[in-house]
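Limitations

Structures in this collection are predictions, not experimental determinations, and the ligand pose is part of the prediction. Treat each record accordingly. The example that follows, with calcium ion as the small molecule, is included so readers can see exactly what is and is not provided: the inputs are given verbatim, and the output is the predicted complex.
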Amino acid sequence: MAALLAAAFGAVALTGAPVPPSAQQSAPQSAPQSAPQAAAGPGGWIRPAGAPPTVFAHRGASSAAPENTLVSDEVARRAGAEWIEDDVQPSKDGVPYVLHDDTVDRTTDGTGRIRDLTAAQLDALDAGSWFAPAYAGTRLPTLAAQLEDLRTRGGKLLLEIKGPHTRDEVARIVREVRDHGMTDRVFVQSFEVDALRHARELAPELPLGLLRSTLDADPVATAHELGLAAYNPSDEALSARPGAVRDLHAAGVAVNVWTVDRPARWKALADAGVDGIITNRPAELAGWNAAWSPPGTAG
Ligand code: G3P
Ligand code: CA
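Predicted complex:
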């Protein structure tokens, strides 16, 4: 991991500084925290007044390390991301793995649909070389490995259930989260309404977010119907009707927007009151947040 981290931080062009040798030797025990943070509970995921938007590292620090891997998560953690967003899908034999695409072709040295490959086949893949030679040997993480990594190193997980899932497949995800004692550090999101319904029934303690590429006619009604803690639209979708943030907040529902990498949009979204920003550039957004001032104050 240390060599991979050195490669990763060398690739974070905007931070510039290499990882000091001491940091390469030991992992942090807890994620950096930026206060104040939203707390769980009805309306509790809404950003407190004066706080900057929560940083969600999209697929980990995916601009600096291979997406959806433990090294990508570690780079995001060290960069100051409070939350890491990753995607989960089952193998042929039902083991949840962290992968975005429905095939392994783009992000590993293998080929085929993840649902057609066994855990043993997935464990043999190299999930780092495609990004850069320095990451050769990086493995495709199981959800269990990722949860254990987060539990011991720190950080919270925005876990996207990617693609249609049966009730049993969602139950397996829930079991992994519970077995690792991570229910208070995981937020589930999905484009898949059925997956969210299964998660709500199986694990009412887990907060839920609905991903949308276009806004519902009545996002509040949708949020109530699905029991959402957050409504998570694309930047483009929210741009069409930014007033939806006010309506959702009035209903106690947070709004987290994806996938936003431009500071001009960070500013517009922060001013619009969104609660979190999902970005491929968590280091930069964390730094931008540190310098951010609420509208109307000196910055
Ligand atoms: O977290 C939102 C975002 O991840 C949804 O899009 O395709 O990157 O999973 P995608
Ligand atoms: Ca995702």
